[in-house]
Amino acid sequence: MNIGSLSEKEFISAIQQEGVAFRVAGFVVKLQTPFADVGKCIYLLYFDFPLADLNSFIDFHMEIVPPKGVRRWYCPQVEFYFDGFRPFKPLPRDQAYAMFEWSFNWCVANHMHNYFIVHAAVVDKDDKCIIMPAPPGSGKSTLCASLVMSGWRLLSDELALLDLQSEHVYPIPRPINLKNNSIDIIRNRFSNAVFGPIIKDTAKGTVSHLKPPEGSVLSASRVSKPTWIIFPKYLAGSETSLLKRSKAQTFMEVAKNAFNYTVLGRDGFQTLVKLIDACDCYDFCYSNIDDALEEFDKLRESK
Amino acid sequence: MTETWSARPSEFYEFKSWGSDGVIFLCDSGDTHLLNPMGVQALELLQSSSFQLIDLVRELSLSPALDAESITPNSVLGLLTELYYLGILSKK
Question: Which residues have C-beta within 8 Å of that of residue B11, sequence separation ≥ 6?
Fold first, then answer.
């Protein structure tokens, strides 16, 4: 039974009362919030995700709630609680849904140390995946969204989860967080793209979340073999270029983008060595999405 | 100048090279360092045997992967000293 098997009204009512538990790939999340608009966003964007039993093991107990005191009404704010603990300062009320998504990232990155976790988008075809680590502003999410809307499977837009033993990547397909101009680029290009609300004036600019394709959600239990590591860079007016890069330098850059490389110590080093051994490593520069998609298809056909 | 240099046992570090470049993880500090081609070649030699500086310079000069002109006693000594202070090498 998935979230969409409830009516929107039933779902919102449940999330406002005892909360709703749902499965996101290997994790079970329980969310409780009095905010109907947050419930509405979750219903829209997590429509295809399986519901979980509230009495089952829950990995992350989350609450998105109004603060106590005057900021409940005056310049209203919103707070996030994880297992009853508030890790962040409040955000403006209209950023409640974005806070849920960012906090979800934080929960996974800070607690799931049975994985090697890299800040990266991951897309897959034929169970071979491309890991794309990149800093904000590099065009990673725009490229990821374009690939996913063009038939690639979404494993994640933010978190590459590598199994420490098998070195497979575990999918965690969630809504893709698009920022500023990227929102219109994807909206104009893909008429079937489903977006959550536009959220303005966040620390990351204007953001909106793209619903993950149903196929990616339904195949979230299928692991993928890391095959390429690509550092994307959007550069206006540039020619599309895909250039091999040094494996040792790639190692250092991926370690820098990993959330728990230092936490894992020697295991982290060994996992990353195996990942780098298994992958071809590239720098990718693009300005035209058609060319970028073509280049990625060529790459896929080469293996 | 008559000191003999060698790599410490591998329990102190993890080393991996890909062709000319490499990385090394130091177990005590948890730090990771990028090694340039000379560092990789030197460490690979020192893992297999002990060397005096002058012998190591000669060995490194024979490597086709390195620019022979950049391999001077001073540059190699600088590298060895750095690796020594990182806890990768020992000297007698």
Answer: B27
- Give pLDDT < 50 ranges for chain A: none
**Cα–Cα distance measured from residue B89 to residue B92, given in angstroms and rounded to the nearest whole number:** 10
Tokens of A136: 């904000």
pLDDT tens for each residue of A78-123:
999 999 899 999 999 999 999 999 999 999 999 999 999 999 999 9
Report the residue of chain A nearest B36, measured CA to CA. Answer: A248
Q: Which of A246, A261, A269 sits opposite B21 (nearest CB)?
A: A246
Contacts of B27 in chain A (CB under 8 A): 265-266
- Tens-place pLDDT, residues B27-85: 999 999 999 999 999 999 999 999 999 999 999 999 988 988 889 999 999 999 999 99
Q: Does B22 touch chain A (CB under 8 A)?
A: yes
- Residue A239's alpha-carbon distances to A20, A141, A284, B37, in angstroms, are 47, 19, 10, 31
**What is the DSSP secondary-structure string of A18-72?**
T-EEEEETTEEEEEE-S-HHHHHHHHHHTTTSBEE-TTS--SEEEEEEPPSSGGG
∠ CA A264-B30-B6, rounded to 5°? 130
Interface contact B32-A265, CB threshold 8 A = no
Q: How far apart are CA A234 and CA A230, in angstroms?
A: 13
Interface pTM (ipTM) of the complex?
0.92
- What's at A231, amino acid-wise? F
Q: Domains of chain B, with CATH numbers?
A: 4-91 (3.90.930.60)
Choosing among A251, A279, A280, which should be mutated to test the B contact, i.e. which has the most B CBs within 10 A? A251
Residue A127 to chain B, least CA–CA distance (Å): 26
Q: Cα angle vertex A42, ends A200, A175, to 5°?
A: 70
Instruction: Give the pLDDT score at A23.
Output: 97
pLDDT at B1: 56
A92 three-state secondary structure:
strand
| Chain B environment of A248 (Cβ under 8 Å) | 17-18, 21-23, 34-35
Q: Identify which has the larger pLDDT, B19 or A216.
A: A216
Q: Which two tokens stand for residue A181?
A: 């101009």
Q: Do B25 and A269 touch (CB under 8 A)?
A: yes
